[in-house]
């Protein structure tokens, strides 16, 4: 089934359901109508089966309209973070061979040299009046393994990989979550996440539409505003990353009058490990036990703690979702309970492969199992606990940063002879990105200049918060950089 058709059917059959985006309220039926108009517009531009359409927009209704319209036509959405640098966007547009780039007028001007060079058509949302377009009342009958979204993941070698997520992946995962989390039309979700990311777009927004629940959407996260909105709008459901929960705790402590959050049914956390202290403090001040789950771009949601609050355990991400199977592998065989190994998964939620990277796809699978690169163990009941991330992944504010990608940029700076990027625990972001560099003898610089160079070539969240100039980077006897030493050393300087 076509995911967009399923979502539109849900929207059109939802009586009196609305999405309130800041001060404007949109009925579900109006949203469905605008998706169909956007579909008609794209059809007129000859956007069709499996064409890649890149969307780089701030959080706005147009993002929603064109994403689902694109899928309705059988095309593929390439959601791009608005914070991506010019060079990053050029790579994504070029690598995906995108047919059309949907963005704002200001961003179109910023990227004009790129779109001209790649000869990509550009559609700017300010120049569109959807009401003037005829609605497309048909939809493309996609096959289960047709790609719906290409989500680019940070590259461990400086080159990002495009995870091909199918209509079937999205629908099956969406239904599994609806059952497990008991999502229904009686819910009202507060949506503060970005929608260029799988968490905000697939889990939160598509899940809410599918369950026919009312939606209150904020452009950006603001902790005090979240507490106020939960009380005033009688919110029942909130999804966030650990950074947001830390800010909610900090804001709660400062509020003179604590809000009435008796309407709340479920707080869900994902995209990064939830610190044990934060889990406990949130429960102590609110009375709610956060439900932690585990997912990734390549597989959507993989595991979740049980719905029953007493069965949620700190430091655990719970059990495999319906339709997904997981195992822990050590030395090419099943790891016994409580023994750490790499997490392997298989199921109807697992992606099709990496766009135009057959070798990378082949490396990522073994006997039909996808190797997640995450390290963990299961207890005697099959409950999963994650203990680390392979390939030195840093998760900052719920967003993934691979050190090698940042080092790739640092090493191009004229003053840098050698670099190492690592994560340091941070009370706000979970982890922060830091770097050490050894400078070329004849070319001097300072940390601020190097950070600014990174900002010119990378999204802000990937850039080091601090750059430390050193004479030597610690290595073992085999010449491998010992990043754990760096993380420990600079954590002490916090």
Question: What report would you give on this structure?
Answer:
With 494 residues, the chain is α/β, with parallel strands linked by helices. The chain folds into three domains: 3-142, Rossmann fold (3-Layer(aba) Sandwich); 188-391, 3-Layer(aba) Sandwich (Rossmann fold), CATH 3.40.50.12780; 393-491, GMP Synthetase, Chain A, domain 3. Helices cover 33% and strands 28% of the residues. It has 15 helices and 27 strands. The chain has a 15-stranded mixed sheet that branches. A four-stranded parallel sheet has the order 4-3-5-6. A three-stranded antiparallel sheet has the order 7-8-19. Strand 21 and strand 22 (384-389) form a beta hairpin. Helix 1 crosses helix 3 (61-72). The longest helix has 17 residues, at 28-44. It is globular. It starts with a helix and ends with a helix.
Write the layout of secondary structure elements.
Elements: H1 3-12, E1 18-21, E2 24-27, H2 28-44, E3 52-56, H3 61-72, E4 76-79, H4 86-96, E5 100-103, H5 105-110, H6 112-118, E6 121-124, E7 147-153, E8 161-166, H7 167-180, E9 188-191, H8 198-211, E10 214-217, H9 223-233, E11 237-240, H10 242-254, E12 266-269, H11 276-286, E13 291-296, E14 300-304, E15 316-320, E16 324-330, E17 333-334, E18 341-347, E19 353-354, H12 358-364, E20 365-366, E21 369-378, E22 384-389, E23 394-396, E24 399-401, H13 403-410, E25 416-426, E26 430-439, H14 447-457, E27 466-469, H15 483-491
Parallel strand pairs: 1-10, 3-4, 3-5, 5-6, 9-10, 9-11, 11-12, 12-13, 26-27
Antiparallel strand pairs: 1-2, 7-8, 8-19, 13-14, 14-15, 15-22, 16-17, 16-18, 18-21, 20-21, 21-22, 23-24, 25-26
């Amino acid at each position: 089934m076509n995911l967009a058709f399923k979502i539109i059917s849900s929207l059109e059959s939802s009586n009196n359901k609305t999405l309130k985006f800041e001060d404007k309220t949109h009925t579900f039926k109006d949203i469905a109508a605008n998706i169909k108009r956007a579909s008609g517009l794209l059809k007129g531009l000859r956007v069709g089966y499996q064409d890649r359409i890149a969307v780089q927009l701030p959080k706005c209704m147009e993002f929603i309209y064109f994403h689902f319209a694109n899928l309705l036509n059988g095309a593929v959405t390439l959601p791009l973070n608005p914070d991506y640098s010019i060079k990053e966007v050029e790579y994504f547009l070029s690598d995906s061979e995108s047919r059309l780039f949907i963005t704002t007028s200001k961003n179109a001007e910023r990227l004009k040299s790129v779109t001209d060079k790649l000869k990509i058509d550009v559609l700017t949302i300010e120049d569109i009046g959807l009401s003037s377009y005829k609605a497309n009342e048909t939809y493309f009958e996609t096959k289960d393994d047709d790609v719906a979204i290409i989500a680019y993941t940070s590259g461990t070698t400086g080159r990002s990989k495009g995870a091909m997520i199918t209509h079937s992946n999205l629908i099956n995962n969406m239904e599994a979550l609806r059952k497990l989390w008991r999502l229904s039309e009686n819910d009202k979700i507060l949506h503060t996440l970005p929608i260029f990311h799988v968490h905000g777009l697939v889990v939160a927004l598509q899940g809410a539409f599918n369950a026919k629940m009312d939606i209150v959407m904020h452009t950006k996260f603001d902790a005090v505003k979240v507490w106020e909105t939960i009380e005033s709008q009688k919110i029942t459901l909130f999804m966030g990353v650990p950074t947001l929960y830390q800010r909610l705790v900090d804001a709660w402590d400062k509020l003179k009058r604590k809000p009435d959050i008796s309407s709340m049914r479920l707080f869900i956390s994902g995209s990064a490990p939830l610190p044990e202290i934060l889990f406990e403090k949130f429960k102590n001040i609110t009375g709610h036990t956060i439900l932690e789950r585990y997912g990734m771009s390549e597989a959507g949601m993989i595991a979740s703690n049980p719905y029953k609050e007493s069965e949620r355990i700190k430091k655990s991400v719970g059990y495999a979702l319906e339709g997904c199977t997981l195992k822990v592998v050590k030395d090419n065989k099943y790891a016994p309970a409580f023994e750490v190994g790499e997490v392997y998964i298989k199921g109807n939620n697992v992606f099709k492969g990496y766009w135009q990277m057959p070798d990378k796809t082949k490396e990522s699978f073994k006997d039909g199992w996808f190797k997640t690169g995450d390290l963990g163990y299961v207890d005697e009941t099959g409950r999963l606990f994650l203990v680390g991330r392979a390939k030195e992944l840093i998760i900052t504010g719920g967003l993934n940063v691979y050190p090698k990608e940042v080092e790739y940029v640092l090493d191009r700076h004229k003053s840098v002879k050698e670099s190492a990027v690592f994560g340091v625990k941070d009370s706000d972001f979970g982890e922060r990105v830091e770097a050490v560099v050894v400078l070329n003898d004849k070319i001097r610089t300072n940390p601020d200049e190097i950070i600014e160079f990174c900002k010119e070539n990378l999204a802000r969240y990937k850039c080091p918060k601090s750059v430390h100039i050193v004479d030597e980077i610690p290595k073992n006897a085999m010449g491998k950089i010992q990043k754990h030493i760096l993380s420990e050393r600079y954590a002490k300087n916090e």
